[in-house]
Write a structure and sequence with these properties.
The protein is α+β, with helices and mostly antiparallel strands and 634 residues long. Helix content is 29%, strand content 29%. The protein is rod-shaped, with a radius of gyration of 56 Å.
Length: 634
């Protein structure tokens, strides 16, 4: 019974010792001593921060926690002391540092299920005799001959005070001398920077920035001293040129690479390192055997227009997978001047529609070209078939007041250019096909002229009563000097031609030169066709015309021939001759060599007669009501 009582007393004593020593007996995850030290001097304010409130330690946004600070000498919990110590969660403030405050201060963070421990070292030194500023100094460089700046290392203090809504101010010193803002080459810039215009070697000296504020009812300050040296080498903020907030597309399963391109304005070799990040993690692999890897960092110096160095590092995929898409890939350039970055987003490529569109456009193009070729090759056949299939779409010509479908003009007997073949074609071949086979009504000068009618009146009256004019000609038709001179002025009216082409004989009858009718027909036809546009002239070329012969034709005929072409009978004769030769050989074999004469083809389905029918008036069936037409014209 006595032993149990003694054991209980011992356990109580040990428990009491645990309460007194605080954190010593507690089983916490130990994060050891922070690498960063806090340096201070007696009389200054010092700030100690615990880094346990971090997502790397626990989920502090979802799990409740509290932090306790402990004195390294006594092991007791540190609480607020007016004018001396202020505790703000993870931050421990010393408002008036003494040499006794030097030591390792422990912070313990507790959650409902865990606890974490960390130590922070405070170093308190005395200032060196005869020197101004802090004994522990940081180092920064200034570039000779340019405008440069020094950064105050107290930004953490300023950010913490801003979170408390505490107003603070900064003052800079060079050695022991205060620097007044805006005097000389010095100016305060962007809260924590001291800008120096035209840096010189004399700027090699210590600079001190002092932050003054009021906290916990105590007005105090904290200072940092910077050892500064001037150098001709410099390195400005890196500029990330690629990637530039891009959205890129790639085919799943394909290879892919993207470069990070950074330019560093500098003299000398800059201390800048490029890293690729994805989902917050670095991609450090440089082995091509890995599916995702990076290249080694490469550099290239540039002299103009701006001195500097280009840095490049590639991000490469040997095969893209589904998990590689819809995420950002970030390139960061780490330097003392800053950490600029650029990123791109990788998306799956759209379906390849170029090939189908190419096939479709190619097919449409081929179809269009084929249609054009077919149309121009078989234009006459298509138009004739359309007229035959849909006659109701064309106006009935019987009500237009015309008597003839065409006026046939050709060299008359005794005229220049007359030949028996031309006369036979005009008086026999044309009527045999166009009138008998096709049903057209022709006016042929040598056949249908009324006896005693004046040539001029006959030409004018019958041409006006015709819907077309078929001008038959050979190479010699227009080569008459007299005819050429008369037809070269097509703007003269017919009455003038009558006066210059005819004269009265001694017995009172009108005497006409041999080619007067031909001249009148040509002049009248060209006048109506080219100037009035009231008559369509169809050129019927009975023999092949050479360029030299064509040059002797009247300008109006050459113009019309160039504009609308001519229907060539000689081509039909050439085809017929070839067909005749073939037939003769066959019949000579069958009949023992006897020759059987064959006439040229007079079938309306031959190419020549199809072209003639194409140019002739359309024999439509659509009715036209003159009274309605008159009303519409009002």
């Amino acid at each position: 019974m006595g032993r149990r009582s003694a054991l209980g007393s011992l356990l109580f004593f040990l428990g009491l010792c645990g309460i007194c020593t605080g954190f010593v007996q507690e089983n916490c995850t130990d994060y050891k001593l922070q690498f960063e030290r806090v340096f201070s001097v007696p009389g200054d304010i010092a700030m100690l921060n615990s880094t346990l409130v971090s997502p790397d330690v626990f989920n502090f946004t979802a799990v409740p926690y509290n932090i306790t600070w402990y004195d390294p000498k006594t092991g007791r919990e540190i609480s607020n002391q007016t004018g001396r110590i202020l505790v703000h969660g993870e931050t421990l403030w010393f408002l008036n540092i003494t040499l006794d405050d030097d030591g390792d201060y422990v912070s313990i963070l507790r959650t409902p299920s865990r606890c974490y421990r960390q130590a922070t070292k405070l170093v308190v030194d005395l200032p060196a005799a005869g020197e101004c500023g802090r004994p522990k100094k940081s180092g920064q460089t200034l570039t000779n001959g340019v405008t440069d700046s020094l950064s105050c290392p107290l930004k953490d203090y300023i950010d913490k005070l801003d979170s408390y809504n505490v107003t603070s101010s900064i003052k800079w010193y060079r050695g022991c001398d205060p620097i007044v803002d805006g005097t000389g080459r010095y100016s305060y810039w962007d809260t924590t920077y001291l800008k120096i215009d035209g840096v010189e070697p004399q700027n090699n000296s210590p600079y001190t920035c002092t932050l003054t504020f009021t906290l916990g009812g105590i007005t105090g300050s904290v200072s940092e001293t910077i050892d500064t040296w001037v150098t001709t080498n410099y390195s400005w903020v890196p500029q990330v040129h690629e990637p530039a907030s891009e959205i890129l597309k790639a085919q799943m399963g394909s290879k892919f690479s993207k470069r990070c391109l950074v330019f560093v304005p500098c003299v000398g070799r800059p201390s800048v390192h490029i890293f690729w990040l994805v989902r917050g993690g670095l991609i450090l692999n440089t082995n091509p055997s890995d599916r995702v890897y990076t290249s080694e960092q490469r550099s290239l110096s540039q002299g103009v227009p701006v001195k500097g160095v280009w840095l490049e590092r590639l991000l490469m995929f040997s095969e893209l997978r589904e998990e590689d898409f819809h995420i950002n890939y970030t390139c960061q350039a780490h330097s003392d001047r800053g950490i600029p970055e650029g990123y791109f987003t990788l998306l799956p490529a759209d379906p390849n529609i170029i090939l189908p569109i190419g096939f479709m456009l190619g097919g449409v193009t081929v179809l269009f070209i084929s249609s054009v070729i077919i149309y121009y090759r078989f234009k006459v056949d298509i138009v004739l078939w359309f007229r035959r299939a849909f006659p109701v779409l064309y106006t009935n010509k019987d009500l237009d007041g015309k008597l003839y479908d065409a006026y046939v003009a050709y060299p008359q007997p005794c005229a220049v250019g007359f030949s028996k073949e031309v006369e036979t074609f005009a008086l026999h071949t044309l009527p045999q096909v166009l009138e008998k086979a096709c049903g057209y009504k022709l006016f042929i000068a040598g056949r249908d002229c009324l006896p005693g009618t004046a040539i001029v009146d006959s030409v004018e009256e019958n041409m006006q009563a015709s819907r077309r004019l078929l001008l038959l000609y050979t190479a010699s038709t227009f080569t008459s000097k007299r005819h050429t001179s008369s037809t070269s002025s097509n703007n003269n009216n017919i009455s003038k031609t009558r006066d210059s082409s005819s004269s009265m004989s001694s017995d009172g009858s009108e005497e006409v030169y041999p080619d007067t009718r031909q001249q009148l027909e040509c002049v009248a036809a060209m006048h109506r066709a080219l100037l009035e546009g009231s008559l369509k002239v169809v050129l019927v070329e009975l023999e092949e015309i050479t360029p030299a012969q064509l040059a002797l034709f009247p300008a109006s005929v050459r113009h019309l021939r160039k504009k609308q072409g001519a229907v060539c009978w000689w081509k039909n004769m050439r085809t017929s001759q070839s067909w005749r030769t073939c037939m003769r050989r066959r019949e000579a074999e069958e009949k023992g060599g006897q020759d059987t004469p064959l006439s040229p083809s007079l079938s309306p389905s031959s190419r020549f007669w199809k072209e003639m029918r194409y140019h002739m008036p359309v024999r439509g069936k659509r009715a036209v009501y003159p009274e309605k037409t008159a009303l519409l014209n009002l």
